C-alpha cells in the first residue's frame, strides 16, 4: 500500500504543473493493435482529462490500411516511409482512418469514462494541406499547411477529447493522406502544446551503446543522425519532434507504447520510461 501511495505522491507535482495544458499524442503501433493495450491507452487518456490536462489524439492506421488493400488486391508501395497514394488508395485510407479506426478509439475512450469526439482533418477544414514535394511521384500524400485550432480548443473546452484522423482537405480542392507522425507534430505546433508524445514500438531513442537515452536536447539530434546512431524509421520521428520544438512545443517524448500505461509512466514519474527531447 505504501508503494501505491508513494506513486500517487510522486505524480502530484506533475499533475499540478500540467493542469490546463495541452498534450498532443500520436497514437499508433502495438498500442493500437493489441486489445489489452487499447484499453490501457483509453484509460490513460481519460485520466489525463480528469486531472485537468487536455489530451488531443492523432492516430495512424497503416497496418489496417495495408491489410484491406491486400484483401482487395490493390498493390501498395512506399517511398521514404510514405505510402504512394492514388485515388483508390486514398479512398481506402479515408474509409479505414476516418471510419473504423477513429470510431473504435472514440468508443474505447468513452467506455473508460472519457468523452471523446472523432474528427477527420476534413471536418470543418480542420487540416489544410498541399502535396508533398521532392519525393518523386507519390500521389495524394500531403503536408499540412494550416490547422484550425479553434475547432480543437472548442471541443476541449467543453470537456471532450478530440480524436483526429490524418486526412486533410487540399488547398487545390483535392483530399490528401497525411503521415500521422507529421500530422501530430503540426497539430502540436499549432496548439503550442506543452507536450508532443509519440507512441512507438521501441523503447525510445537509443544511444551508440544500445542503451536508452532518457534526455536529449534538440541540438543533439542532428549529430546523432550524422553519426548514424539514429537511423531508419526513428529519423522521421525525431525530426517531427525537433520541428515541433522549433515551432514552440515545450517538450517532445518518444515512448514505448507496448508498455501498459506508458504515457502516465513517462509524464507523471521522476524517471520516465522513454526519451524526452527538449529545446536548446
Going by CATH, the architecture would be 3-Layer(aba) Sandwich
Note the gap between the termini: 40 Å
Mean pLDDT across all amino acids: 93
CATH class: Alpha Beta
> Portion of residues in helices?
40-55%
Task: Enumerate the strands of the largest sheet in spatial order, edge to edge or round the barrel.
Answer: 5-8-2-1-11-13-14-12
Beta-sheet strand percentage?
15-25%
Unreliably modeled segments: none
Quote the CATH topology: Carbamate kinase
Tally of domains: 1
**Helix tally?**
10
Q: How many whole angstroms does the radius of gyration measure?
A: 18 Å
Q: Biggest β-sheet, characterized?
A: 8 strands, mixed
The geometry reads as globular
Secondary-structure element sequence? HEHHEHEEHEEEHEEEHEEHHEHE
Classified in CATH, the superfamily is Acetylglutamate kinase-like
Content-based structural category = alpha/beta
Supply database-style keywords.
alpha/beta, Carbamate kinase, 8-stranded mixed beta sheet
Model description:
By secondary structure, the protein is α/β, with parallel strands linked by helices. The chain has a single domain (20-278), classed as Carbamate kinase, CATH 3.40.1160. It is built from ten helices and 14 strands. The chain has helices at residues 2-18, 30-33, 35-50, 62-71, 87-111, 149-157, 180-190, 218-226, 234-246, 262-267, and strands at 22-27, 54-59, 78-79, 82-83, 116-120, 127-131, 141-147, 161-165, 167-170, 175-178, 195-200, 215-217, 251-256, 275-278. The strands form three sheets. It has an eight-stranded mixed β-sheet with strand order 5-8-2-1-11-13-14-12, with helices on both faces. It has a four-stranded mixed β-barrel with strand order 6-7-10-9. A two-stranded antiparallel ribbon has the order 3-4. Strand 9 (167-170) and strand 10 form a beta hairpin. Helix 3 (35-50) packs across helix 5 (87-111), helix 4 crosses helix 5 (87-111) and helix 7 (180-190) runs parallel beside helix 9 (234-246). The longest helix has 25 residues, at 87-111. The model has no long low-confidence stretch (mean pLDDT 93).
Amino acid at each position: 500500500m505504501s508503494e501505491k501511495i508513494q506513486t500517487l505522491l510522486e505524480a502530484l507535482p506533475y499533475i499540478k504543473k500540467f493542469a490546463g495544458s495541452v498534450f498532443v499524442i500520436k497514437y499508433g503501433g502495438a498500442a493500437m493493435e493489441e486489445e489489452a493495450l487499447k484499453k490501457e491507452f483509453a484509460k490513460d487518456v481519460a485520466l489525463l482529462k480528469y486531472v485537468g490536462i487536455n489530451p488531443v489524439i492523432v492516430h495512424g492506421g497503416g497496418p489496417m490500411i495495408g491489410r484491406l488493400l491486400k484483401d482487395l488486391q490493390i498493390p501498395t508501395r512506399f517511398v521514404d516511409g510514405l505510402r504512394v497514394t492514388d485515388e483508390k488508395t486514398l479512398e481506402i485510407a479515408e474509409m479505414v482512418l476516418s471510419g473504423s479506426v477513429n470510431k473504435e478509439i472514440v468508443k474505447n475512450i468513452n467506455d473508460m469514462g472519457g468523452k471523446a469526439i472523432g474528427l477527420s482533418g476534413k471536418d470543418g477544414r480542420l487540416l489544410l494541406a498541399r502535396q508533398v514535394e521532392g519525393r518523386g511521384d507519390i500521389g495524394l500524400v500531403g503536408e499540412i499547411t494550416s490547422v484550425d485550432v479553434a475547432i480543437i480548443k472548442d471541443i476541449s473546452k467543453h470537456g471532450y477529447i478530440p480524436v483526429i484522423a490524418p486526412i486533410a482537405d487540399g488547398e487545390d480542392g483535392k483530399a490528401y493522406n497525411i503521415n500521422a507522425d507529421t500530422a501530430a507534430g503540426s497539430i502540436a505546433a499549432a496548439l503550442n502544446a506543452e507536450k508532443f508524445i509519440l507512441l512507438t514500438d521501441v523503447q525510445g531513442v537509443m544511444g551508440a551503446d544500445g542503451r536508452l537515452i532518457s534526455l536529449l536536447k534538440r541540438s543533439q539530434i542532428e549529430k546523432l543522425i550524422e553519426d548514424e546512431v539514429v537511423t531508419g524509421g526513428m529519423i522521421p520521428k525525431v525530426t517531427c519532434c525537433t520541428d515541433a520544438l522549433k515551432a514552440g512545443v515545450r517538450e517532445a517524448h518518444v515512448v514505448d507504447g507496448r508498455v501498459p500505461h506508458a504515457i502516465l509512466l513517462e509524464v507523471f514519474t521522476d524517471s520516465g520510461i522513454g526519451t524526452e527531447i527538449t529545446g536548446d
